[in-house]
Specification:
It contains 13 helices and 16 strands. It is an alpha/beta fold.
Length: 387
């Protein structure tokens, strides 16, 4: 995270603050314009209370999501809590999902299938805040809390939720209660979650891809929709680490030459701010495969890998160069897996095979590791295609 950026607060913190305020207003009859909660991170969240509504035996109110300087898609939406009570012999808190809160439809998530997508930490936060208010108001009975987000269903379509198996709305999430601006943690957590879900669905192999480049190519060649792959973005190394830790036996890295040529140089985070030596790597590999000085200089001047490939192809070196690129990618993937497995060998994890397919928009498949052939059958079977 960059210095000077303002922290924000999770949907879980917003839900807990709204539930606290609604409970207080229902049980005391008073009205609140502000409230505060202590987040799990130990930071106090001071929240403004909006849209207060008293409706017979219930009170609802909202807290506006403030993501700080993080470009969070839920920033600015209202998170509501509606609170009602019933008789009971002790204080019991029931938490439900209302409009715009997703429902869990796949295993492997924080909550069981059929549950509202309100994660464990927010559930605990809401329960603690509501019980504290009940104690203050000397109330004994059942307190029902319905969390909702009217804009949630519309926003959820632009999140990972549909792919993860959360339907109908957003998730109420957060482990610390705080949003760290510009953090990569959320993305890495999502990659881990997708890997974990796939493993729990019975698959000990997965395709990982930096993005959707080559979707039609992979679909036509392998009968596999790359949208079903685990999107690793630039975090190839960390994704391999997580897959190894979760016990995967086989991983196929499928990607465009523009990203994967960096892996041929041992670069496992392919973001341009981390490293951009695509042309240097292509030039070096071309040189050892017979490229003369003039060709090497021209490759170094290229802006895109597709442009460089045209020069390499015109010189009759494409196959040799891409064989070497593929071999080096395979070597560095195996090295990363081996080092990770050695580091956690006490866990008795299975060896993980890492294969690779490299392609380009213009030339199609450029290179495949030897083990990639096995994926033809594997992926076709998964897609229920006949070989």
């Amino acid at each position: 995270m960059s210095e000077g950026l303002r922290k924000g607060y999770t949907t879980g913190s917003c839900a807990a603050a709204a539930a606290k305020a609604a409970s207080y207003m229902l049980l005391t009859g008073k009205t609140l314009s502000k409230t505060s909660i202590l987040t799990p991170a130990g930071i106090t969240y001071y929240a403004d209370i909006e849209d207060i509504c008293r409706n017979g035996g219930s009170v609802s109110c909202a807290v506006r999501k403030d993501s700080g300087d993080d470009p969070d898609i839920t920033n600015g939406i209202l998170i509501y809590a509606e609170v009602s009570v019933a008789e009971d012999t002790e204080v019991k808190v029931e938490i439900m999902g209302g409009k715009g809160i997703g429902t869990v439809t796949k295993p492997g998530l924080d909550r069981p299938v059929g549950s509202p997508a309100i994660n464990s930490t927010p559930l605990t936060m809401i329960t603690q805040e509501v019980k504290a208010v009940a104690e203050l108001a000397e109330f004994i009975g059942r307190i029902r809390v319905v969390i909702s987000a009217p804009e949630g269903e519309k926003i959820a379509a632009r999140t990972f939720n549909p792919k993860l198996g959360i339907e109908g709305g957003i998730s109420i999430i957060g482990t610390s209660g705080i949003v760290e601006p510009m953090s990569t943690r959320a993305l890495l957590d999502t990659i881990r979650l997708e890997l974990k879900q796939r493993m729990e669905s019975g698959y000990d192999y997965a395709v990982i891809a930096p993005g959707n480049y080559g979707r039609e190519l992979i679909l036509n060649r392998f009968g596999y929709d790359i949208d079903k792959s685990i999107k690793c973005s630039n975090y190839i190394g960390e994704t391999l680490d997580m897959a190894s830790e979760l016990g995967y036996k086989k991983i196929l890295l499928a990607g465009h030459i523009g990203k994967l040529v960096k892996v041929a140089g041992g670069i496992m985070n392919t973001h341009s701010k981390e490293a951009d030596c695509r042309m240097e790597i292509l030039t070096a590999i071309s040189a050892i495969n017979g490229a003369d000085n003039s060709l090497c200089m021209n490759i170094m001047e290229c802006v895109t890998t597709e442009e460089a490939l045209r020069l390499i192809d015109a010189a009759g070196l494409k196959d040799a160069v891409m064989n070497e690129v593929t071999k080096r990618i395979e070597m560095h993937l195996a090295d990363r897996v081996r080092r990770r497995t050695d580091a956690i060998s006490a866990g008795d994890l299975p060896d993980m095979q890492a294969d690779v397919i490299v392609y380009s928009n213009e030339y199609g498949i450029l290179g495949m590791s030897k083990g990639a052939e096995e994926w033809f059958t594997l992926l076709a079977q998964e897609q229920e295609h006949r070989i």
